[in-house]
């Protein structure tokens, strides 16, 4: 258990001394995953809301497929995005491979189904409650969807947290399309993988602890904001 | 579905028209309305004509089809057979309708935002108008509170204010005061009376005989999906023509 | 509200696009290389010196030799620095690379637990050691990932006439992972493993493992560096890539390689053909 003690000590040292490399890696992790989350919410939340409120033939199949895609393996996503962005691939001309942009794309692809599927469920439940009232008020479709998204904002915040958790913690996709390049595409998870392969298990674990703390801080912040807002303004 | 686009009626014009309503074309002609669900006939050949500007009380035992009739007339449910014709507004467009449900569904926002949402639907979001509506229902000082944290009576008043924000020519009320405290009931009845005074045609479902007496111009009595009688209010409570209504008023269980 | 959302989206797309293009100022190249060189920390030593001399930033993608060459075939990189001579020569013959240059070498070693069930300690022949391991059915962990180390291990098995793949899953275990991950597995299950000396020396999780077999000429491990063919992949930064190669094989680069030490031990031995400096 020597590694565990060493890891705790190392983690503390890294954080307390504000290690420059650590800050860079943490910064990139947050930038990539937050951007991926924002893109994915912009795409998936309106789509999920549309799917949660509309009835059309084949809807059940779309919902099942979307739910299944929540389990997309990150390496498969990484491989697909690699094939797309490779210089030999259809989007090679963008020269995005081995850049943070490629990592953002991969993580966006990875978490969009999660955000869409969970949004669909949350909005569908809300829609069941609102539908008759909205029909009575003759609320146009796009206004209804915007209203449902806004009124479901607290559920959707949890949905976004689920997407963020998946993005910040995955390694399979970013290591393939990012390449774990030092000072360019190295993020928390790929750094942990690297330290593990170097056999520096204490450092790997220390980085893991920092990553978990980061996730904890993000969740605590969201919780605090929600708690505060709910008490003072809108239930 | 009720059309949101209609001309707003000016009270003065309505007042002028109300002098001679008997010659006006009826607000509503419904004929042969049938609703069947899984072989069960829930509305059975309902014919109904409603006078413009009148308050019609719909009464009947539980399961008679009162709420269902309201929803069919409002356009929320398509009838299996039959037709609903509403008189069009002066410019030929359908008249605006609004409905107050038994259990209010309020947005998860502030009291003010609930009104603003409806005003915004018609493109006339406006602070002054919102304040007037909230004053009408006695919620002006609660504007910034979360709507969902209001008491049951306050929630229903807000729902009523929201319906009035639509400036409806036809207002449906589906047991709006069931399970409310007496003060809230009185408040809502006051608003309904003043709304009637502005010439709004109203359909009001209630179980409360006293309320029906206080508010109704005429009573439609429903039983097992059929209209048993449609009688002016004063006559109905003095001597109902149908045996079902007589037994109902006598406090008997009508099966 | 919608226009706000739209503007937000626009900002995000612009952010993503700009992030996608942030690389260090000045020229950059991508080097497709191996886990053995990257895990040993060699690049952290070399690249700052290279940058100081040329102003070119080299980004290293560390994968197995097989994958590095495959990525380079797709044009995803400007230079490859790997260790599988036959595969490298084939890469050049097929036109994907311009020319192979010797750059440095170290050697492979067989490491294992001190109990040494197969009794291979001190053997001069790697083939003999593998034969004894197979005969005693002692656990042996293989990279199994088409890397340079894996190719060499398979070549060694071939000289013994034993086909270890028949025993895959029993005493012969293929991890399909990088050098470091494979060493972790070997230490975890007290198994023999073939590794390059550089990774071994810098590896932090050795437990009680030790070098058992070394010094066989068959364990010589040369690294080659190749420029990806710019006529095949026009976006290849041939000028900067060539400068990287020239620097590595120059007296200065060779000296820098020789200088790199971990725990006082030299990991890589420069072996570029001496050139006439211009």
Report what the structure shows.
The complex is a heterotrimer of chains A (235), B (255) and C (278). Chain A contains ten helices and no strands. Chain A is globular. Chain A has one domain: Orthogonal Bundle (MetI-like fold). Chain A is mainly alpha-helical and 235 residues long. In chain B, strands 5-6-7-3-8-9 form a six-stranded mixed beta sheet, sandwiched between helices. Chain B has a three-stranded antiparallel beta sheet with strand order 2-1-4, with helices on one face. In chain B, α3 packs across α4, α3 runs parallel beside α5 and α5 (152-165) runs parallel beside α6. With 278 residues, chain C is α/β, with parallel strands linked by helices. Chain C folds into two domains: 4-106 and 222-270, D-Maltodextrin-Binding Protein, domain 2 (3-Layer(aba) Sandwich); 107-219, D-Maltodextrin-Binding Protein, domain 2, CATH 3.40.190.10. Helices cover 42% and strands 23% of the residues of chain C. In chain C, the strands form two sheets. In chain C, strands 1, 2, 3, 4, 5, 6, 7, 8, 9 and 12 form a ten-stranded mixed beta sheet that branches. In chain C, strands 10-11 form a two-stranded antiparallel sheet. In chain C, a hairpin with a 2-residue loop joins β10 (261-262) and β11 (265-266). Chain C starts with a helix and ends in an 8-residue tail after the last strand. The chains are: A mainly alpha (235), B alpha/beta (255), C alpha/beta (278). Chains in contact: A-B, A-C. The interface between A and C is large, with 36 and 46 residues.
Q: What's this entry about, in short?
A:
Chain A is mostly helical and 235 residues long. Chain A has 10 helices and no strands.
